[in-house]
Amino acid sequence: xxxTGLYVQAxxxxxxxxxxxxxxxxxxxxxxxxxxIKDEEELxxxxxxxYLEPISDVVLIDTNLRKEFKYxxxxxxxxxxxxxxxxxxxxxxxxRVKLNSAVRTVExxxxxxxxxxxxAINSSHTTGATIDITKLGLSLExxxxxxxxxxxxxxxxxxxxxxxxxxxxxxxMVFKNYETHTYLQ
Length: 185
Prior knowledge:
Blueprint: E1 2-3, E2 6-7, H1 19-31, H2 40-48, E3 53-54, E4 60-61, E5 71-72, H3 74-91, E6 98-101, H4 106-115, E7 130-134, H5 140-155, E8 159-164, E9 169-174
Parallel strand pairs: 4-6
Antiparallel strand pairs: 1-2, 3-5, 6-7, 7-9, 8-9
């Protein structure tokens, strides 16, 4: 199969980061005309217009996440709420899932790229559709569960997720059709 210049073997659902995964995210962003937020001025406008909403308080938000980046698209919050309900049901835990990254501006992403080679300039974080959930503080059993949970959602094509090891996060782009899926609800 030819996909914008890359030859792709039979599609295998995996959380391993790849150029193919980045292409899926970028193609999705383009096809669904998600706005890539240029700078903080445009970000403020997107928030005031209601295009982006505050991250749900069901998740723990890393204290290092800048307040202007604590926003996402509405269907990402639906995903986060479902994730927390399922996580809590599985582990009967008082511990909450921790988010350490959400929306970013293109301007911020370019600066981040200078110090973090994993930070793609065309990252889906700039659309508000992508979040990072940290693995720090989770048990091996909880990480395994989260891995399987995301793989299941990737199989039904409502997320595109990558398990990053250098950053110890799950990078998760949530597709708009997540709002209407029936899996795991």
